[in-house]
Amino acid sequence: MTYVDSADYVFAGDSGRPTWHGIMLTDYIKPAAIRAGIGKVGWHTFRYTFSSILHDTGTAIAVQKELLRHADIHTTMKIYTQAVSAG
After folding, report:
1. Does residue 31 share a domain with residue 10?
2. Are both 27 and 47 inside the same structural domain?
3. What is the pLDDT of residues 13-35, one digit of tens each?
4. Residue 25 and residue 46: Cα distance in Å, rounded?
5. Are residues 72 and 59 in the same domain?
6. Is the pLDDT confidence value at 43 over 60?
7. Given phi > 0 = left and psi -120 to 50 = alpha, else beta, which region is 73?
8. Residues 33 and 47 reside in one and the same domain
């Protein structure tokens, strides 16, 4: 399937519907990351990157918690914020 219209899915299968997330990661995202010199990536790479962007732009921790869909704000504060603050 070729991406033609703005309403088309970027990673569409032959049916025009979205490709299964595991196939998308393996067939498209990981090879692109390696070619770009980023190295190995996974879905959590995107979560940590999103968290870093939120943190760097001064987004309130409560808003970060909601956007990251954490049930407990301590997950946001201790795991994600700690990862971006240590450096």
Report:
1. yes
2. no
3. 778 788 788 888 998 899 999 99
4. 11
5. yes
6. yes
7. alpha
8. no
Quick one: 53 and 34 in the same domain? no
Q: Take residue 20 and report the two structure tokens written for it.
A: 């299964």
Name the amino acid, one letter, at 24. Answer: M
| SS3 state at 68 | coil
Name the pTM for this structure.
Answer: 0.65
Among 41, 38, 37, 82, residue whose Cα is nearest residue 64: 82
Co-location of 22 and 6 in the same domain:
yes
Query: Is residue 40 a contact partner of residue 56, using CB atoms and an 8 Å limit?
Result: no
Same domain, 50 and 36: no
Specify the number of domains making up the chain.
2
Scan for tokens 């999103």, then name that residue: 50
| Cα-trace Rg, the chain | 16
Q: What is the DSSP string of 12-62?
A: B-TTSSBPPHHHHIIIIIHHHHHHTT-----HHHHHHHHHHHHHHTT--HH
